[in-house]
Design a protein that fits this description.
Helix content is 40%, strand content 17%. The protein is α/β, with parallel strands linked by helices. It has a domain at 34-92.
Length: 101
């Protein structure tokens, strides 16, 4: 399998976990969104960018962006419908403007 190309994101989510209030976190199943999936949702759904424009911002192809946004939306729907926590972590991303230490 070919290695994944680094995706460039503007928004670092920090430690984010969204969970239903009906159960404690340790009793919930979890869905993990990667940083690139989080950024794809932000660009497409919050900022309203077309896929080609959002793909350029992530420095990936439009078909790759389409796969990422589809995966992200599927995970979010799974979390909402099946009462799961949604965590944002991981992925092959670099944060734009971040100073390396």
């Amino acid at each position: 399998m070919r290695p994944k190309k680094t995706r460039w994101v503007n928004c670092a989510p920090g430690e984010r976990c969204f969970k239903p209030i009906c159960k404690p976190l340790n009793r919930l199943a979890c869905v993990c969104l990667t940083l690139d999936e989080f950024e794809a949702v932000r660009l497409a759904d919050l900022e309203g960018l077309k896929q080609i424009d959002a793909a350029k911002k992530l420095k990936i192809s439009r078909p790759t962006f389409s796969r990422i946004i589809s995966s992200a939306r599927n995970k979010i729907a799974d979390g909402l419908v099946n009462i799961k926590a949604i965590k944002i972590e991981g992925g092959c991303c670099k944060i734009k403007g971040r100073i390396k230490q």
